[in-house]
Amino acid sequence: MTPTLFSIVSAFYSSLMGLALNRSHLILALLCLEGAMLSVFLMLSMWSAFQGPYSIAGTPLILLALAACEAGTGLALMVATARTHGADHLKSLNLLQC
Amino acid sequence: MTQQSVMLSSSLLIFFILLAPLALALVPSLITPHWHKFYAKSAVKLAFFISLLPLFLFMDQGIEIVSTNYQWMAINSFTFNIAFKFDFLSITFMSIALFVTWSILDFAAWYMHEDPYINQFFKYLLLFLTAMMVLTSANNLFQLFIGWEGVGIMSFLLIGWWYGRADANTAALQAVLYNRIGDIGLILAISWFTTNFNTLDIQQLFILNTNESSIIPLLGLILAATGKSAQFGLHPWLPAAMEGPTPVSALLHSSTMVVAGIFLLLRLHPLLQNNETALTLCLLLGAITTVFTATCALTQNDIKKIVAFSTSSQLGLMMVTIGLNQPLLAFLHICTHAFFKAMLFLCSGSIIHNLNNEQDIRKMGGLNMALPMTTSCLLIGSLALSGGPFLGGFFSKDAIIEAMNSSFLNAWALTWTLIATSFTAAYSLRIIFYVSMNFPRYPALTPILEAQQASTPIMRLAIGSVVAGFLLILNIPPPPPQVMTMPTSAKLAAIGVTIVGLFTAAELSNITNKQLKTFPYLTPYNFSNMLAYFQSTTHRLFPTLNLKWAQLLATHLIDVIWLEKSGAKSSMKINTTFSTFITNSQQGMIKTYLTLFFMSTATFLMFLLLN
């Protein structure tokens, strides 16, 4: 595995780890999601640049647009949580627990 | 040929004469306060005299007419017609019914004098009479059914005449319900005939009836007679019907309406005569009825109830005669019975009215001196009823008992009928003893007056009670050959048991003012007085059962099954059960799930990198 690929893949996995293993704040989950999205963006761009056909060159932009929408939704949810629960602590999001 | 047309036209004229005052009554502004005297009564009187014309023509020439007048409707090959049959049964019965009705309307004008709705009363009586005429002269069962229902409804309206009285309403309802059960039988018979013989005409029924015909229509007809003629099982409505005014009891529930069931069986007698089962059923049903109601009559204290039970007993006797395969004797008994029973009711009505509406015989007495004409006619009527030699009832009743004694029949039926005959004499003596003998037990200042307007119809019927049997026997078509030779004991059986009953009752009456026992033996007395507890048990039992069944089916079963267990509530229950179960397994621990996902992905990637 090339160093570039290794660094980007490890960036992805670090973000995933941060998403899975955080226990404190919602905004950290959102940030990790953005990081994962960023690394996938980079890998897509590298893929169309260094290998294969140029016809998929527009895919990263589509991904970016969708990621932006998703980030907006996530931020809106965080603001709503902050409004109702006071802060965005994950411990306060326990309505589904029995 | 002219004689036939005279007979047909005069017979049909009777209907128009009876309907004319009713047509006038359709325009209320045309009814004067004296409508009942000038139109209703004179119409019936005129109809009676006109009905004598077909009667005499029949007696002299033997002419019988069957005429089909109008085809109302035809469905494929089945036709609904208006058809009349003026034969021996219907001509004789119509004349007698019109005579009795004429006397009763005369009496009713006196009895219902202060009633503000007397015109309506007479209108109801006229409607009843018209329906009865339709019933007796019908040539097909459909027209008979129209008359049948008509008399049932008029009976309801007339029994409940004083509808402010709760007992009268209950009695009217009882009459309708018991009659309705009988109607089921008639409708069964009509349906069976329609589907199997494709006709309801009487002549066609007789031709199409073979020996292999089913017993179902006959059972239906017997059920119809049980309901309408108050045989045992469907009998309680007749004593309860005494809630109506006395003219109603005299007309409907003694001479005319209650014989409609027997009349139906007489009309369709050729269907019955070959079926042994049906005949035996009639015999036993009639025997049970006659002895049961005679027993009940022995201890009643209301004068009208005694006469009502007497009617019921005589109807049982008529049913017995049909069971003996002697339709002519049954019809003869219907005719003679009409006279003396109506007269007994009119005498009771006169007594009741004169004693200021007192109906309890324990509060009457000594009317021999106060109401001589009425009590004499009461005596004549009772003698005729008991079969006193050569009075009205003798010719029919004695002939029936002789026929019973010389037939091959059920011994119990014979025994019970003889017992009932002796009871007839007993309760007749009871009436006469309490009403007309000894000293008055009513208040001293009761104004008693024997009005001419009331006595004349009673006397007219008294003459009829005495001579009718004799005249009928002389003038009817010859009967089938009867057994004339029998041992002396059999010949004298009827009069013998009557005398036994009479003397027993006389002996018992003599000891009413002596205390021979310290305590009375009440068990049989209570049994007889409470009418064998029939009303007390069945009138509570069956409605309770019905209502409980209805509650079980409607509320418990349908509500619980369809609404709770398999309908709306069941889906609720299923949803809550599933939700509870799933909530136990799905805890929603997102963080744990994500961590596991990360761990497994890392492990997978490790394996991928190493390979």
Automatic annotation (TrEMBL), chain A:
Coiled-coil residue windows: none
Database matches in Pfam families: Oxidored_q2
GO cellular component: mitochondrial inner membrane; NADH dehydrogenase complex
Enzyme Commission number, as recorded: 7.1.1.2
InterPro entries referenced in this protein's UniProt entry, alphabetically: NADH_UbQ_OxRdtase_chain4L/K (IPR001133), NUOK/Mnh_C1-like (IPR039428)
Keyword annotations from UniProtKB, A to Z: Electron transport, Membrane, Mitochondrion, Mitochondrion inner membrane, NAD, Respiratory chain, Translocase, Transmembrane, Transmembrane helix, Transport, Ubiquinone
Membrane topology: Multi-pass membrane protein
A single BP term in Gene Ontology: ATP synthesis coupled electron transport
Major enzyme class: translocase
Keyword Iron: no
Transmembrane segments: 26-49, 61-82
Localization of this protein: Mitochondrion inner membrane; Mitochondrion membrane
Molecular-function GO terms, alphabetical: NADH dehydrogenase (ubiquinone) activity; oxidoreductase activity, acting on NAD(P)H
Catalysed reactions, semicolon-separated: a ubiquinone + NADH + 5 H(+)(in) = a ubiquinol + NAD(+) + 4 H(+)(out)
Family: Belongs to the complex I subunit 4L family.
Function description: Core subunit of the mitochondrial membrane respiratory chain NADH dehydrogenase (Complex I) which catalyzes electron transfer from NADH through the respiratory chain, using ubiquinone as an electron acceptor. Part of the enzyme membrane arm which is embedded in the lipid bilayer and involved in proton translocation.
UniProt protein name: NADH-ubiquinone oxidoreductase chain 4L
Organism: Protopterus annectens (African lungfish)
UniProtKB/TrEMBL annotation, chain B:
Swiss-Prot/TrEMBL catalytic activity: a ubiquinone + NADH + 5 H(+)(in) = a ubiquinol + NAD(+) + 4 H(+)(out)
Domain NADH dehydrogenase subunit 5 C-terminal: 427-607
Pfam families documented for this protein: NADH5_C (PF06455), Proton_antipo_M (PF00361), Proton_antipo_N (PF00662)
Keyword Manganese: no
GO MF annotation, one: NADH dehydrogenase activity
Stretches assigned to the NADH-Ubiquinone oxidoreductase (complex I) chain 5 N-terminal domain: 72-122
Location in or out of the cell: Mitochondrion inner membrane
GO cellular component: mitochondrial inner membrane
Similarity comment: Belongs to the complex I subunit 5 family.
Protein name from the UniProt record: NADH-ubiquinone oxidoreductase chain 5
Species name: Protopterus annectens
